[in-house]
Design goal:
Elements lengths: L11 E6 L9 E3 L2 E8 L2 E5 L2 E5 L3 E5 L3 E8 L4 E7 L1 H8 L4 H9 L2 E3 L3 H19 L6 H23 L2 H5 L3 H16 L6 H8 L3 H12 L3 H19 L4 H7 L5 H12 L3 H7 L4
Antiparallel strand pairs: 1-8, 2-7, 3-6, 3-8, 4-5, 4-7, 6-9
Helix pairs in contact: 1-4, 3-4, 6-7, 6-8, 10-11
Length: 280
């Protein structure tokens, strides 16, 4: 069972575990979670980025992130506080969108300062206590308040430790690139046309690709395809949707077009990929 999964009946969860459920599986987490490694080491993939996790590393998993545990030592374990997307929105709606994007792009941080460790350990202790207090009539409100406190405390630290240029981008090109990546996170499952993103940013498609090649070394179309392929792999590996249902969900003209698109980018057909990953 997914230890980070929330439901309508259980809008938050807290506890300790090895994240074995995610081992060598790509899974999309529709809710969010704060993870804190207290023992062992591991390698994870969060969206398209790889991270090496050691003790005192804090991992921020925002809603709709794609997560995988690629390897872990036998003693690897994390404390977790998982929360619904609705709770996340309520706890963070007053914060600068640039800060939320900063958290998504810089998801892992290893704490070294004692005061930072006290803060995260306090959240862990409090979230565990209220999660286990199942008869508390204000249980959900308290959990949301704890999450809001965490975000406010993190926001304060980010504002003090990083410059506005580091958070929002040091140039207009970098700012546009960050906004482009944020748009892809939101729309890549339904929008594959570079023109759509250029229009959202109020720039030309040529200028957008110039920016992405300077900032990320790939064209705008290549970056869109990378994120979409990650979504498609999750759908093939972690759902029971048929190939036709996946083609329809991600707005391909038909199953045949979907198959050609996937094989072009993955080097194998969707059916071969699913079989290789052990799915029926």
């Amino acid at each position: 069972m997914n230890p980070l999964l929330t439901t309508k009946q259980e809008t938050f969860r807290a506890g300790t575990g090895s994240l074995e459920f995610f081992h060598k599986r790509l899974l999309k987490i529709t809710n969010g979670a704060i993870l804190f490694c207290h023992s062992g080491e591991a390698d994870i993939v969060l969206d398209l980025k790889q991270y090496h996790i050691v003790p005192n590393t804090n991992i921020m998993v925002l809603p709709n992130s794609i997560f995988s545990l690629t390897s872990a030592s036998k003693d690897f374990s994390v404390h977790y506080f998982a929360f619904s997307e609705e709770m996340f929105k309520s706890a963070s709606f007053r914060l600068n969108p640039a800060f939320i994007h900063f958290l998504k792009e810089d998801s892992c941080y290893t704490h070294t300062l004692p005061e930072a460790l006290r803060s995260i350990n306090g959240l862990i202790e409090a979230s565990n206590a209220i999660y286990n207090d199942s008869t508390n009539r204000f249980r959900e409100q308290i959990a949301q308040s704890l999450l809001q406190i965490f975000f406010l405390d993190t926001y304060d630290k980010v504002q003090r430790l990083f410059t506005q240029e580091q958070i929002e981008g040091s140039s207009r090109k970098e700012q546009l690139f960050k906004k482009f990546i944020n748009l892809i996170h939101t729309y890549c499952t339904t929008q594959r046309d570079v023109a759509f993103y250029a229009e959202q940013l109020c720039i030309s498609t040529r200028y957008l690709s110039t920016i992405t090649k300077q900032m990320g070394k790939d064209s705008a179309k290549e970056i869109i395809d990378e994120f979409l392929m990650l979504e498609l792999k999750v759908a093939l590996q972690s759902t029971d949707l048929s190939l036709k249902e996946i083609a329809d969900k991600y707005r391909f003209p038909d199953q045949s077009f979907f198959g050609r698109y996937f094989k072009k980018h993955a080097g194998m057909s969707p059916k071969e990929f699913r079989a290789k990953k052990g799915n029926k």
